[in-house]
Amino acid sequence: MAGPRQHGRPAEGGFTLIELLVVLVILVLIGGLVGPQVLKYLGGARSDTAGLQMENIASALDLYRLDNGRYPTGQEGLRALIAAPADARRWDGPYLRGDAVPRDPWDRAYVYAGDGAGYSLSTLGADGAEGGDGENRDITRTN
């Protein structure tokens, strides 16, 4: 004898359309709550990455100063850490790995100003404009 029938059809295993819609709504709600937190975390990670890259560049600048008795000038820029400037007699680089100065996490060049005695190194954050807070804040290191 066959199993019980409901409304003339055999019993089938599976999900109804309503059950699938309920699961879909739950997933959308979870995504709506979790998504912004993940984006916030990723934004903070970029700022952290910029800080770490700037520490690495600052260490390279200090090594350059030890060898040459001064920091690169604004005109020489960070490129002096990769290739010897014309007047750098004791240049013992490259002071950074690779053949190019790293770019910030938003794919822009770091802003460098130097007069030989000190320097300022900064990035303008996610918005690329001065000022701002959160992910848009400027990150600056001076010496």
Describe this structure in words.
The protein is an alpha+beta fold and 143 residues long. The chain has one domain: Glycoprotein, Type 4 Pilin. 36% of the residues lie in helices and 12% in strands. The chain has one helix and five strands. It has a three-stranded antiparallel beta sheet, covered by helices on one side. Strand 3 and strand 4 (119-123) form a beta hairpin. The longest helix has 52 residues, at 17-68.
The CATH superfamily is: Glycoprotein, Type 4 Pilin
CATH top level label: Alpha Beta
Instruction: Find the count of extended strands (DSSP E, 2+ residues).
Output: 5
CATH topology name, in short, is Glycoprotein, Type 4 Pilin
- The level of helicity is 25-40%
CATH architecture: 2-Layer Sandwich
Category from helices, strands and their pairing: alpha+beta
The DSSP helix count reads 1
* Rg, Cα atoms, Å: 28 Å
Point out poorly predicted stretches: none
Q: Give the strand line-up of the largest sheet.
A: 3-4-5
